[in-house]
């Protein structure tokens, strides 16, 4: 199954956002501070059972700045889910959330509590007097098809409450931008290696063989003269300090003789032309990121092979972090062919140059509190030939236009080299400092490229669109 549509209303930087997601990998693109991390966090609020519930009770800073909670309102995050039919585990999870054939939805809302809504209806409480204490969060599934995610009002009851424990069968892995994968690889609780070992379901007979090897190693260590001397010294000191009432015998060994201790002690070891069997801590951050993701992908694939998965998704912030361009492309290509969904936030033009245009979700600042968004292949109404033209054109240099605050399209290299210094000399305008990118299209067919800059939709435009659509339906 996959998330096919995300609607966010009044959450952090998003007054109103409504985007469709393509199958496979989605690339969330935009300059800094356009809400890419907020987008991923919104998805987690809705569907990630591993996210602490303390995050679901919103803080004032989680509510869009144009909204005053003193008047009854809501924060809404809605996910539409598809491609689950015919998959037993996935149908069991989302079947109760269906609101149209083959289409399910999950809705997170932060709105006035039921008792407060009733008091508002009876006029015991007046609008303008509400506080955060009057709000709570809820997650529901399904609902009437006539109620689109874009038009649900704060006092509409939509769908039925879900059992939060059900979400635990849907695996969400979030890799933040400032991730410390070396620490996660060392710590058993956060290590993807521990998850992978558990998913391998090692046979009890083989587990016992590993335990025998550990017992024998412990016996050899204990039999060594120096080890025995150290153990006796520690044993005597412990008994002296603890006293006879709390006395226990002390010995030295590799680990306690249990299979769990073997799993905890396992480490990934590298061998290169320069060194043999060295710890990942000797690597740079980039290769350790690749190692972490590789183990995670194998764990996901193992869950799918065992048919124990009720859906899974990777939310990956800045996969290019600490990677040189070739490794960025290698990692992106590996992610893009996975049999499950992933959503990436990226500033890498190397990644956007290799991603299909259909995978783009572009977020843009317009100088107002609300972020504008677009899915270019949908909102720009591009023809197939135009999509192919743009995909050939947007290489690692030219796809810079996707991240720029403002763009000046020019015909060719002559304008590219002449216009910036000319403006600086004559007008005193430094285009780079003004956030303006000069992009040559190597021709005069500006119409195709211009479409990319007229497809962002504001909150008002999206509201009008969905009111019209609901009326038409």
Break the fold down into its secondary structure elements and pairings.
Blueprint: E1 2-11, E2 14-20, E3 25-29, H1 36-47, E4 75-82, H2 88-94, E5 98-100, E6 103-112, H3 114-121, E7 135-141, E8 160-161, E9 171-175, H4 181-186, H5 192-200, H6 204-223, H7 225-242, H8 259-265, H9 285-305, E10 312-317, H10 325-336, E11 341-346, H11 349-354, E12 360-364, E13 372-374, H12 376-379, H13 384-393, E14 406-410, H14 413-426, E15 436-440, H15 446-450, H16 459-472
Parallel strand pairs: 3-11, 3-12, 9-10, 10-11, 14-15
Antiparallel strand pairs: 1-2, 1-4, 4-6, 5-6, 6-7, 7-8, 12-13
Question: Explain this structure to me?
Answer:
With 473 residues, the chain is α/β, with parallel strands linked by helices. It folds into three domains: 2-170 and 310-363, 3-Layer(aba) Sandwich (Rossmann fold); 189-284, no CATH class; 397-451, no CATH class. Helices cover 37% and strands 18% of the residues. The strands form three sheets. Strands 1, 2, 4, 5, 6, 7 and 8 form a seven-stranded antiparallel β-sheet that branches. The chain has a six-stranded mixed β-sheet with strand order 9-10-11-3-12-13. A hairpin with a 2-residue loop joins strand 5 and strand 6. It is globular.
From the structure above, extract its key features.
473 residues, alpha/beta, Rossmann fold, 3 domains, seven-stranded antiparallel beta sheet, six-stranded mixed beta sheet, 16 helices, 18% strand, globular
């Amino acid at each position: 199954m996959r998330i096919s549509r995300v609607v966010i209303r009044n959450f952090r930087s998003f007054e109103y956002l409504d985007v469709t997601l393509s199958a496979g990998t989605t690339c969330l693109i935009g300059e800094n501070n356009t809400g890419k991390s907020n987008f991923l966090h919104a998805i987690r609020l809705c569907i990630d059972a591993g996210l602490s519930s303390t995050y679901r009770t919103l803080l004032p800073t989680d509510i869009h700045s144009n909204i005053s909670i003193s008047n009854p309102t809501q924060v809404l995050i809605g996910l539409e889910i598809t491609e689950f039919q015919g998959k037993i585990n996935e149908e069991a999870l989302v079947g109760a959330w269906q609101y149209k054939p083959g289409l399910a939805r999950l809705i997170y809302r932060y709105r006035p509590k039921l008792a407060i809504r009733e008091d508002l209806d009876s006029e015991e409480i007046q609008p303008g007097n509400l506080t955060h204490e009057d709000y709570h969060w809820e997650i529901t599934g399904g609902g009437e098809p006539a109620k689109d995610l874009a038009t649900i009002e704060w006092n509409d009851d939509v769908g039925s409450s879900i059992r939060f424990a059900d979400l635990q069968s849907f695996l969400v892995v979030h890799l933040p931008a400032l991730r410390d994968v070396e620490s996660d690889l060392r710590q058993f609780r956060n290590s993807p290696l521990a998850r992978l070992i558990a998913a391998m379901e090692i046979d009890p007979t083989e587990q016992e063989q590993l335990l025998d090897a550990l017992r024998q190693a412990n016996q050899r260590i204990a039999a060594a003269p120096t080890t025995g001397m150290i153990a006796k010294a520690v044993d005597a000191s412990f008994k002296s300090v603890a006293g006879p009432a709390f006395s226990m015998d002390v010995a030295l060994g590799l680990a306690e003789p249990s299979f769990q201790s073997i799993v905890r002690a396992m480490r990934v070891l590298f061998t290169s032309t320069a060194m043999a069997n060295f710890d990942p801590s000797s690597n740079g951050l980039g290769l350790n990121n690749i190692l972490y993701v590789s183990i995670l992908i194998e764990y996901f694939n193992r869950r799918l092979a065992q048919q124990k998965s009720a859906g899974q998704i990777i939310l990956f912030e800045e996969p290019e972090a600490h990677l040189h361009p070739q490794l960025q492309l290698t990692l992106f290509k590996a992610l893009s062919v996975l049999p499950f969904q992933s959503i990436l936030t990226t500033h890498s033009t190397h990644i956007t140059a290799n991603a299909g245009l259909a995978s783009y979700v572009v977020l843009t600042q317009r100088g107002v509190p609300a972020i504008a968004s677009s899915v270019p292949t949908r909102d720009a109404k591009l023809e197939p030939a135009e999509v192919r033209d743009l995909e050939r054109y947007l290489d690692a240099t030219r796809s810079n236009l996707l991240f720029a605050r403002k763009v000046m399209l020019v015909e060719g290299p002559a304008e590219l080299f002449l216009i910036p210094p000319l403006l600086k000399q004559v007008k005193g305008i430094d285009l780079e400092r003004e956030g303006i990118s000069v992009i040559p299209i190597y021709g005069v067919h500006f119409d195709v490229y211009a479409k990319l800059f007229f497809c962002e939709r504001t909150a008002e435009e999206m509201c009008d669109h969905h009111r019209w659509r609901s009326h038409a339906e």
